[in-house]
Design brief:
The complex is a heterodimer of chains A (543) and B (296). Chain A is an all-alpha fold and 543 residues long. Chain A has 21 helices and no strands. In chain A, helix 1 runs antiparallel to helix 5 and helix 16 runs antiparallel to helix 17. Chain B has 296 residues and is of the alpha/beta class. In chain B, helix 6 links the parallel strand 7 and strand 8. The N and C termini of chain B lie far apart (46 Å). Classes of the chains: A mainly alpha (543), B alpha/beta (296). The interface between A and B is large, with 35 and 42 residues.
Chain lengths: 543, 296
Amino acid sequence: MTATVTARPGGTLLAGSPGSAITRLVWRQVRRGAAVVTLCAAGISALVVATYDSVIASAPGGAASLAALAGNPAIRTLFGDPVALDDPGGFAVWRTGTVLAVLTGVWAATATTRVLRGEEDAGRWDILLGGVAPIGSVVGRHLAVLVASVTGVGAATAVALIAAGTSPAGAVLHGSALALVGAFAVAVAALASQLAGDRAAATGAAVAVVLAGLVLRMVGDGLDPFAWLRWLSPFGLSALAEPFGADDPLPLMVLAVGTLALLLVVPAAARRRDLRGGLLPARGPRRPRTALLGSVSGFEVRGTLRPLTGWTLGIAAFLLLIGLVSRSMTEFLAQNPLFAALAAEAGFADLGSVEGYAATLFALLTVPVGGFVASRVSALAGAETARRLDLLLAGPVTRLRLVGSVAASAAGGALVLTVAGGAAMWTGSRLVGSGLGLRDSLAGAVSTAPVAALGLGAALFALGWAPRIVGLAGMVPAAGGFLLTVVADSMGAPQWVASISPLTHLAPVPVAPPDLVALAIMVAAGAVLAAVGMIGYRRRDLA
Amino acid sequence: MPLSVAVRAAQLTKSYGRVRALDAVDLTVPAGQVFGFLGPNGAGKSTMIRLLLGQARASSGEAWIFGVPTTDVVAAHARLAYVPADVALWPGLTGREILELLANVGAGTDRAYRDELVERFELDPSKLARAYSSGNRQKVALIAAFATRAPLLVLDEPTAGLDPLMEQQFQRAVREARDRGQAVFLSSHQLAEVEAVCDRVGILREGRLVDVAEVPALRALHRTEVDAVVSGPVPDLSGVPGVSALTADGGRLRFTLSGPPAPALRALATTEVTALRMHEPSLEEIFLGYYGTVQA
């Protein structure tokens, strides 16, 4: 430094290093989520390896029958190509790899837009950039911390796998794949944060790209002619590395180079734009659109329409694909007459029909629908923190009525999503002629909606008593339940463990009639949670 | 309780843990009055307003808006409009759309007057809220509040981001509101603004309401500073009723005067007065007197 700065006598001049201060700031903002994801990934991987022997021993026919089951296109679409099911590590990768990669990727994308774009939108970067660090270096520091966090997820998973007794090469390869999927999500979200005009748009775009990668992998795994699509997807490239099988690092190198290229563009893009602006042109002045501004409920519907459209398109595309794959499954069944019996013995009831296949995948629909519902209540909590509710609640509107409108439009949206999912699945299966009925498809999809009611109740409970964790609480019944089911199934846990998950209590509609009692209990539990949450919400001070 | 009382607080108290943000405040603001709520940062002004709006719950005590308990937000808010200190708007809506929403949700709006206010405050309502500066966001909230027919306007430091011309428009709108019979509860630390528009002032310090006074009475409580220059013999003012803190520097006399000025003027008139300046303390000086701080 050339300027002469004199410290006051007796005072300490904090010349400090601005870079490391920013690094510490970012780490404070992401460390909690990073710790949760790391624990999940490492813990679940180790658990599945540790219980491998008992699970395989108890399966009828052992690893061979499992391999036949895993060869089913439906199962392949969900979990990926089975590579080394006779190896505990290979089994863990097949059974939990996709779920953990999606968890890591979605967390990385949302955390990235939160610290890169949300902090900027909230005006806090005005202060940060008023310091001596230029924007390129501030953004670079953020990226470094985020990439380090996902690297930690991968490293912890590799260490946990090795500690549980798997071969080091496969463990390191699988850990690297997790870390690279996370880093790819960071890069995509960081780029979206520079292009889009605000955090919501950046998050939507980034999560859409990450999940599109998953769909590409699924198409590639489910439909042989499209196997090459896996080279375009971070999930596909992870699968192509075949940890514990071929142990081929080349696909991961492709992913690393692509991710690095994206990451390098980000600081340059940040330097080229205005603070709180995006590189894509912002919408200018416009004529007023006054539809749905007449009441609080109408306004909430208006605010729900745009995100609902995005979620609907995503879910419909996903289930259309699942429907299109259903044909190749029917062919597979024709060639493997023993399969249906095997699958039933292994616990995958009724996978032997297109209806059973649909029912299994409709259970998966609860995760995105639960995510939508949680995101709506989370948006209300965010509006409160951002003080946007001050003006609304200064009108003659009770808090209860405001929350009621949010809950109603979230519940309505969830219903729309399940109907759209059912219709898309039917469309896909009809296009390939696999014979799934429209009524069956809709019934199967809509019968999963009560899990979303449970998620809505959990989110509203948190809104009243722990408003900072609304989104997380809302995700627990569906995504948490799904994770629990996967873990419990993979490690052969006692029945009561799996029975904690609401997904265990969904009847496989349309194969079986809906379990109306279980569904009513879920809706009632959601209502009780919501009611208790409202007691807290009415009493507490607003942020 | 008479309905002619716009705001009433009885022993209103709010504690955050061991910190008392508001301590047993008793206050009455009659309908139709412009009431200034003064105090330094952290005195509890915003806490008081959050309690009045039902955004926060009182630890003890009660408050009423036109006789309606503040906990009954539907009835209480049908009688008020509010401008927060830090206006947050929906970034994806234009100014016009936000005004429309607030008019539909709020206590009833005079749309013709609202359009006039849009002109007077020079707001471009076709812009998206994300493009508004903080001053423009404040204008949106002010226009929405002034355009209501609500008998009480609660304004929390509403002019922090406004330029002097807009500040004038604000003061004009407050006077028009008073002329229509609306009460205004104006929290501020802009003393010139309070002095210009308020009928009555309450001063809050560390959560306690230390004084409530009519603005003229508050000013009259305090002495007039007199600065006189005389040629010729310097008159002896010591012992003249109402004169104190007398200093003489050659032909220059300085003293403070309380009560009727006639005796002091008569004493001065015995000599040739070449310059006389009488200075009435501004509310600011009174205010600073309360807090014992004189800023350079």
